[in-house]
Design brief:
Layout lengths: L13 H12 L3 H19 L7 H21 L5 H21 L6 H13 L1
Helix pairs in contact: 1-4, 2-5, 3-4
Length: 121
């Protein structure tokens, strides 16, 4: 079980709750796009096509993932949950901006490579 699968269960394991909140509080736009880059690399090797082809795909997937995060933030309003909420709002805003700057995804794959390079160094 991932540290998010227990969301919605009656009793949340404290360690998993803290791990999940910390994970969400540490999200940032670069991290999200590195996940996209890694997912695309995996999909290219396995299916010969990328999982994400443009910023709209990223924004759409992130919105679906956020649903679990917001359930967590609402169910467990501990002192630091706002860090996670603010992190998600920031990533969403940055992703919307990337989509607006490149709506057709013409520079999408170059952008992903640049994000990867930031974290490889």
């Amino acid at each position: 079980m991932s540290h998010d699968n227990w969301i919605g269960t009656e009793n949340s394991p404290t360690f998993d709750l803290l791990l999940s909140l910390a994970d969400k509080a540490s999200h940032n736009n670069n991290m999200a796009y590195c996940y996209v880059w890694a997912s695309n690399k995996f999909y290219m090797q396995k299916y010969n096509k990328p999982a994400y082809k443009n910023h709209f795909d990223v924004l759409s997937a992130f919105a679906l993932y956020q649903t679990r995060a917001w359930k967590l933030f609402r169910k467990h309003p501990i002192d630091r949950y706002k860090l996670g909420a603010n992190s998600y709002i920031s990533v969403c805003g940055a992703t919307v901006k990337k989509y607006q700057d490149d709506p057709d995804g013409e520079n999408f794959f170059k952008f992903l490579d640049a994000q990867r390079d930031i974290f490889v160094e």
